[in-house]
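Bug #77: duplicate submission created two jobs. Keeping one. Sequence:
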Amino acid sequence: MKKKLCFLVLARLISSCASQNSNFLINHYEKCVDDFCLSNNDDFLTNMKDVDDYIHDGVFILINRKENTYFKMTRYPGDPKYKMSLFEIGYIPTTDTLFAYEYEGSFITDNRTSLGDTEEKIIELQGVPHDVSVVDDYTVYHYKANESNSSYVQENNECAYIIDYWFVDRKLAKLIFGFDYP
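Kept job's structure:
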């Protein structure tokens, strides 16, 4: 009887841990790039000259031609005017001509993440990815948190938060983070 009871308790403990692990946690949320942060950017965007001319279909792109990089901010339908819900940083593809606002920033996140960082640095920062995929020449590390396990997601009244780190030759070539569109 003791062996059955002990086994039953152990089985429930393992089952409980497995269900908790299905609600992934994120160690360090990426929230800002330079002075731009997820949610509200009224202070920064309203002070940029002619910024409304560069926002199309809820997307605003900044480029730094010297570093050949871009920073894309996306506003979801129904969001307030300058609330940006998803950020993307990457290298400008040589074949693309972007309609974008010229910017001198270096596009570094609040966790000091920047293009060119190694896979090892990201794993040290975030832990083992929740999922890994291969898309064209990229290896993508996926991280996600949802409202049931994240006070940050709850505070922003969102459903889920994602971070996707895109690597080429083990170096960060693109970063996408923010609130997942419901």
